[in-house]
Structure of Peptidase S8:
Amino acid sequence: MTIRLSGIFCLLVFFAQAEPRMAGPRLAGPRLAAPQHAGPGIHQPKYWVLLQDKDRASAVALSPAAIAQRKLQNLPLDDTDQPVSAVYLNELKQAGVQPICQSRWLNAVSAQLTAEQYAKVVKMPFVKAIQAIDPAIVITSTGLPSNPQMAPVMSQIQAPDFMRAGLTGRFVNVGVIDAGFFGADSAHALKHVFARDGVKRVRDYVNEKKTHNDLFRTLESNADFHGTEVLAAIAGSDPTENIQFGLATDATFYLARTDQGNREYRGEEDNWVAAMEWMDSLGVRLINTSLGYAKGMSNPKDNYEPGQMDGHTSLISQAAQIAADKKGILIIVSAGNEGEDRSWRIISTPADAQGVLAIGATNARLWNRIGYSSIGPESLPYLKPNVACFSLYGTSLSAPVITGFAACIMQANPRLTNKEVMEIIEKSAHLYPYGNNYVGYGVPQASRALALLRNQQLPAAPRVVQATGKTVTLPVDTNELAVSVFHKKDAIHVLQQEAAKVNNGKLILRRATDEKQTTVDLKKEVIEIIWE
């Protein structure tokens, strides 16, 4: 099929009024004070009740397919695969507490607790701790242009190279956890997916009583379009027009709605964890989640500080790390859209978890960070975001592009572990190994990924230049009038990025105060300057 790079939303007519969204709640701190009495009609706060241990005699809650996947990856079954103790559940119910979600990974249940119930439950001998679930959420978004285009990202990541190699995500199971999938079964760009029964299972954790079709037919808010947009960015295609929108056009999908867009106050991290564990039980190894949790507690005293985006404070990041380390799942998550929010700026959770692949967003021409894209916290001992690609509509739509990229790699070699796939994606990125906390290792390139899969040598290694003084003049081989430059205070952390002009094949760079290293991005080549 000839690839014509075109606009994804031009075909999905009903997206014209939808705003791509990225949910941004914060999770509560390690342990909070007991709740105050709620007045009549006030929604009771929701909590995680963390339990001490499990019934070791319980059978694992996994399908044969999931068990086979674990064996293939040499990942042993352990107590995180066993269900929550039925004895403890019964004691909670006898105390008048009705569990909402159960997490075998975290060994916890979520529940709404009155002040009296909180005081009673926290004293139960099998309860290790109680941790609040964020009751408030801030949904951030970027404006949707009247004639949006996806073409730049498809050429940017070299989509035709995967197509020529016959890689379309065939035989790869992909989970999508999002805010809604309204109209997905009737969207023109997804017609081929539903025609071949490519969506195998659907679950709505917001409205458990809804049927399969209700999820596609019921519109509560514009956020319900979001998952459909994400799915189209992973697998969208129009064979009649020879147009490809996503890389994983032949993948198999499992969809979960965990976020409700028409309510201001709610806690939904438990829905997210429940969806992750459901997909794990079915043997799904690749999951896209374009939802990020950042800030927005009703009581500002309970808000996380940016410094707590550390990969292990939030329970949702703990669950993501368990998925990466113990379940062999590759989670691809949006880095966040808070880059221009001066009170925040950094990535949201679970993008802060070391084991997930966090995706930022770049400009179309220079491939540097687009303004809204969240940056990696300086306190992290590892690089975030991991990689990035072009998106005008928020990192919500850059993540699914890379999910399709991952599906193609997993089709090419199904025996690769999640961490090996993640490594290939990072090494295929155009700035590797000189990543930074603005765009990670840069934009993954299909040609480089294919070379890595075939154990072939990559193009010429990056140039390293030693420089002294305040300026350096570099000869550069490029036809561009301007190139992207990252001024860094160390190997990773960016002081500022700029578009530097190229004059007669030369680039003159001036060293900034406290600048130790500089990355010059020529797209086909990267130059790393070490200032002495």
Observations:
- The mean pLDDT is 85.
- The two ends are 52 Å apart (CA to CA).
- Residues 282 and 290 are 21 Å apart (CA to CA).
